[in-house]
Amino acid sequence: MSLKTRAGWSPEKHHWVKTPPGPPSGPPLSVQVSPKSSTEMEVKWSEPQKWKRNGVIVGYSVVYTEMNDQSNVKVKNVTDTSKLEVVLQSLKMFTYYEIRVRAIGEAGVGPLSNPVVERTDQDGK
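RESULT FIELD:
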């Protein structure tokens, strides 16, 4: 910023303004889902793009539902931000699930990732 007077322009001065953090504006990236058994699936993801984090990420939510029962939404929260994976347990055997992940910032939750649809394995018996 500088001012103009009759004598000319003043020396420039920089003004830094710190804005408060906001909720993440981008979803986690590269969501991958793989069945581990007939009742478990492993979900992995990458952090949101750096400029879309809008502050410190304090956790993640994995939102999942059976494809044939969209009214029964379940959420698994991950508070250890060094772990970008989780195992969903107690799932139904040989069932398709829709899975999404969202980042949680100090100022709120971000958008959900694109859905990934995967099926649990059949029972080994």
